[in-house]
Write a structure and sequence with these properties.
Blueprint: H1 11-20, H2 26-34, H3 38-53, E1 56-60, E2 62-65, H4 94-102, E3 111-114, H5 124-137, E4 142-145, H6 148-158, H7 162-172, E5 176-177, H8 187-193, H9 200-212, E6 216-223, H10 229-246, E7 249-256, H11 272-285, E8 291-292, H12 296-307, E9 314-317, H13 324-327, H14 338-347, E10 351-354, E11 362-364, E12 369-371
Parallel strand pairs: 1-9, 1-10, 2-3, 3-4, 5-6, 6-7, 7-8
Antiparallel strand pairs: 11-12
This protein binds iron/sulfur cluster.
Length: 373
């Protein structure tokens, strides 16, 4: 086996822990963020990645649906949410949601990823009707719908508990939850970035309740704005602790901040170096979450491809239409064809494995797909 050269002496004890399969501490996390020895980080993260997922890189064939960008919150980090009176704001009717869901249908989409703004008038019943209509029209498609922030907002508007709200959404068709809205849990940063959103503790409580009800979810962290290294480590460890209790997180997705068209436009975009470091550190700290996703929409397909050797084992999906990060200046395409995803994976020496939302392999023939359970 090739001997890896570790330049940064702070990483040597961490290497021993990683090789022994031991949990890394808060201080280890800080040392990982503070090192510039990216190749050593990548080597260590790759050890864990291959231990958990072998040579496989997962992807899925999905479509994003963002029914409205009208939002009562005014998060400084956001270029997507708009006031109801903004002439550029949009809200689709139920028929439009159902119609758009069917666009690009030829690729036999296995997942709809549904998130949007916090609309002041759309009711929980409206969302339930939307989900029911999607299930009726596309019974085989998994509905990954609504962030913890949206769930909490719907509960507040409906004057019912988080648990009841989730139960209603599940009865209407929600199969799992995405991981957005976590941003950074630290209260100081959250007050500056997204004052009107639920707190970090509330986000974790919604996730806990969802997991207790049997829903799987993803989890995220928004990085590359005003957060410190301590904030990042704290965020990851809070996710790790909740995962210890519930086991409900499937995938962690580090989200690079896109400053264009936000109130924080003076902040520089993240670099490829930072993006790869974020993937590697999260793989090393989140030892109880199976998957780390390199979300190509935010990282670019080029960095996401390399990330497969720095800890990532998932490239997300074909997406088809994406609004949230493109409003914030993302220059990536709106969707990747299945063949392009396969090429990104194979060129990196990995074995592509199409999955459904719950990481069950999907076997595809010319005209149909089968989820292998
Ligand atoms: S980040 Fe979400 S909650 Fe905040 S303004 Fe944007 S859409 Fe609204």
């Amino acid at each position: 086996m090739m001997e890896i050269i570790i330049d940064d002496p702070r990483l040597r004890p961490i290497r021993e822990k990683v090789e022994a399969g031991e949990r890394l501490s808060y201080e280890d996390g800080l040392a990982l963020y503070r090192t510039s020895d990216l190749l050593a980080l990548g080597y260590l993260a790759n050890l864990v990645r291959e231990r958990k997922n072998g040579n496989v890189t997962w992807f899925n064939v999905n479509r994003h649906i963002n029914p409205t960008d009208v939002c009562v919150a005014s998060c400084k980090l956001c270029a997507f949410g708009k006031r109801a009176k903004d002439p550029k704001a949009y809200t689709w009717s139920l028929e439009e949601v159902w119609h758009r869901a069917g666009e690009g249908w030829s690729e036999a989409i296995t997942e709809f990823h549904i998130v949007g703004g916090l609309h002041p008038e759309l009711t929980l019943d409206w969302y339930c009707e939307m989900l029911g209509g999607l299930k009726q029209r596309f019974p085989n498609v998994h509905l990954k719908a609504f962030t913890m922030v949206e769930v909490a907002y719907l509960a507040q508007r409906s004057k019912i508990s988080i648990r009841e709200t989730l139960e209603k959404l599940m009865a209407a068709g929600t199969d799992s939850l995405p991981g957005g809205g976590a941003e950074i849990f630290n209260d100081r940063v959250r007050r500056i970035l997204c004052d009107h959103k639920i707190t970090g503790s509330q986000w974790l409580e919604v996730a806990r309740t969802a997991h207790e009800l049997g829903l799987k979810s993803n989890c995220t962290m928004l990085y590359g704005h005003i957060e410190t290294e301590e904030d990042r480590v704290d965020h990851l460890i809070k996710l790790r602790e909740l995962q210890r209790d519930t086991g409900g997180f499937q995938t962690f997705i580090p989200l690079a901040f896109h400053p264009a068209n936000t109130d924080l436009g003076h902040i520089s975009s993240t670099t490829g170096f930072q993006d790869l470091k974020m993937i590697a550190v999260s793989r090393l700290l989140l030892d109880n979450i199976d998957h780390i996703k390199a979300y190509w929409i935010m990282m670019t397909p080029r960095i996401a491809q390399i990330a497969q050797r720095f800890g990532a084992d998932d490239l997300d999906g074909t997406v088809v239409e994406e609004k949230i990060y493109h409003d914030a200046g993302a220059t990536t395409s709106q969707g990747l064809r299945r063949n392009e995803l396969l090429r990104l994976i194979r060129e990196a020496g990995r074995e592509p494995m199409e999955r459904d939302t719950l990481y069950r392999p999907v076997r595809r023939t010319e005209a149909a797909f089968t989820v292998l359970v």
